[in-house]
Structure formats: structure tokens, C-alpha cells
């Protein structure tokens, strides 16, 4: 795996002129942040030997290199999920590659279901903690000390300073942004009413199928993380309705300008 990561990094380095300082992972319906990037290079995942490939609608499947303001960034326009059949070690590859390319911070977005009764469709949730309900972990297996410690601390998976800055940016721009705990499940089916109740009762405010493997991987390597969710549907008693993937994409695309503004301004504070 370590050889594969290094091989991918060496391939990418032959395609780009400037290495990134920040990594960005864009979730379902949230790929429009790319419009804020002064794009220098775009590489299809399928053209990168050994790199995973997106299989989900709404995930374009490109690595975008360029600048947001004064910062050199690499953005994943499309991500990977456990339910696509990837191993947890394969899910870790993109973040490990970004670390070897030089990123110092990781920004992650996702679309998810709200289980907190105070949430509404279209709200944003700044993630301040998570619950891993996946049947595994990207750090299982042989540990490579060059990547990180065998038992990484997770007392602050999401960077408190970035969270505070994001809360202020949201308030200054009249954006509804809660803070809360994100629970990750395997999917791909959405949750039953009983599962929604369970997820809320164990302390989560929202539930989705991504983000946590990437954040665990990043923290293993000492990368500070900021993650934010778009609440695209509700798992609250009395508000649970039939939801399609197209519904999720539509809500994410509608709220995308606010998310883009928040992340762009947050990057500008670094």
C-alpha cells in the first residue's frame, strides 16, 4: 500500500507545476466549489494508475489543482465510499496521497440526513465530533510509522480553531450553521425510522455515509480537519418522507453557494 501511494504521488507530481497546501473533498452535489478555484491542472481519477474511481452520480471524479485566493489547493471533485465496494485501506489512499503532496489542512463536505429535531432541510452543520458506525477502520492492518502512530489520539478530530472561525463567518453572512456530531453508516440504503431514532439516541445530530474514514486517515497523519454537512433530508419523527438520491443532490446544489462562501472565506483566514 505504501508503494502504491508513493507511485500515485510520483505520477501526479509529473502532471502539476505547483504542489498544494490545502486539500478539499467535495461530496454529493457539492462539486461547484471548483468554480472558485483558479484551475491549473485537472486529472481524471481513471487516468491516475492505482487511484480509486467514483461510481456515484453527482461525483465527477477529478483531482483539481489550482488556487483559492493565495492558497494552492487540491480538490477531489467526487469521493469514495465503503458501499461502493472499496476496502477501508483503499478509502484512505486519496488523503494519504494529498498528505504526501504537501497539504497542511483538510476540508471535507458532505450531504447527510438530520436527526436533530432543531434542524431543517437546507441547514449547514459544522461537524465537531463523530461516531463511527462503519464495520471497520482505515487504520486496521499493519501500521507504517512513516504515516502515523499505531494508536492516534482522537480527542479533537475536528480542529476547534477552524470551527470557531467558521461559526463567525456563518453568523456574519446570515448563514444557518449548527454545530453537531456526525454518525457514519455503511449505506447505501437510507435509514429506517428506528435507525434514525437509534442514531439520535446515541448522541448524533446527523447521519451520512462518508467523511469519517477520510478524517481518521488525516488525523493519523497529523492533518488538522474541518468538515461540514448540508442537511438534505430529515430523520426526525413526523418529518420522515420518501427520499431519492436526486432529492439529496437537488438540496445540496441549492445550498451550495452558501457552503462555497463559507469555505472560501475560511480558507482565506489561514
Distance, first to last CA: 32 Å
Low-confidence stretches: none
Q: What is the name of the CATH superfamily?
A: Nucleoside phosphorylase domain
CATH class: Alpha Beta
Mean pLDDT: 92
| Proportion in helices | 25-40%
Number of domains: 1
Assign the structural class, choosing from mainly alpha, mainly beta, alpha/beta, alpha+beta, or little secondary structure.
alpha/beta
Largest sheet: 5 strands, mixed, barrel
Strand content: 15-25%
Tertiary shape? globular
Please trace the helix and strand order, writing H or E for each element. HEEEEHEEHEHEHEH
* CATH architecture label: 3-Layer(aba) Sandwich
By oligomeric state, this entry counts as: single chain
Tell me the CATH topology: Rossmann fold
Instruction: Give me the side-by-side strand order of the main sheet.
Output: 5-8-7-6-9
Would you give an account of this structure?
With 270 residues, the protein is α/β, with parallel strands linked by helices. The protein has one domain: Rossmann fold (3-Layer(aba) Sandwich), CATH 3.40.50.1580. It has helices at 2-13, 88-101, 160-172, 193-201, 212-220, 245-268, and strands at 22-26, 38-44, 62-68, 71-77, 105-114, 124-132, 177-184, 206-208, 225-234. The model has no long low-confidence stretch (mean pLDDT 92).
Amino acid at each position: 500500500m505504501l508503494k502504491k501511494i508513493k507511485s500515485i504521488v510520483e505520477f501526479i507530481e509529473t502532471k502539476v507545476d505547483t504542489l498544494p497546501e490545502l486539500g478539499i473533498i467535495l461530496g454529493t452535489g457539492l462539486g461547484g466549489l471548483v468554480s472558485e478555484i483558479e484551475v491549473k491542472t485537472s486529472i481524471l481519477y481513471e487516468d491516475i494508475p492505482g487511484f480509486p474511481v467514483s461510481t456515484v452520480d453527482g461525483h465527477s471524479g477529478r483531482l483539481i489543482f489550482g488556487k483559492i485566493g493565495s492558497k494552492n489547493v487540491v480538490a477531489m471533485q467526487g469521493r469514495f465510499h465503503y458501499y461502493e465496494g472499496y476496502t477501508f485501506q483503499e478509502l484512505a489512499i486519496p488523503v494519504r496521497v494529498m498528505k504526501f503532496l504537501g497539504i497542511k489542512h483538510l476540508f471535507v463536505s458532505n450531504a447527510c440526513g438530520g436527526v436533530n429535531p432543531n434542524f431543517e432541510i437546507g441547514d449547514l452543520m459544522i461537524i465537531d465530533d463523530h461516531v463511527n458506525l462503519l464495520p471497520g477502520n482505515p487504520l486496521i492492518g499493519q501500521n507504517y510509522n512513516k504515516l502515523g502512530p499505531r494508536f492516534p489520539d482522537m480527542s479533537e478530530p475536528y480542529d476547534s480553531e477552524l470551527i470557531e472561525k467558521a461559526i463567525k463567518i456563518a453568523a456574519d453572512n446570515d448563514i444557518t450553521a449548527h454545530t453537531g456530531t456526525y454518525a457514519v453508516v455503511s449505506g447505501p440504503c437510507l435509514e429506517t425510522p428506528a435507525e434514525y431514532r437509534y442514531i439520535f439516541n446515541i448522541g448524533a445530530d446527523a447521519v451520512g455515509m462518508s467523511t469519517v474514514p477520510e478524517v481518521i486517515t488525516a488525523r493519523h497523519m497529523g492533518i488538522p480537519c474541518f468538515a461540514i454537512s448540508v442537511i438534505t433530508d430529515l430523520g426526525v419523527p413526523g418529518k420522515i418522507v420518501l427520499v431519492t438520491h436526486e432529492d439529496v443532490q437537488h438540496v445540496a446544489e441549492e445550498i451550495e453557494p452558501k457552503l462555497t462562501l463559507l469555505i472560501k472565506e475560511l480558507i482565506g483566514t489561514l
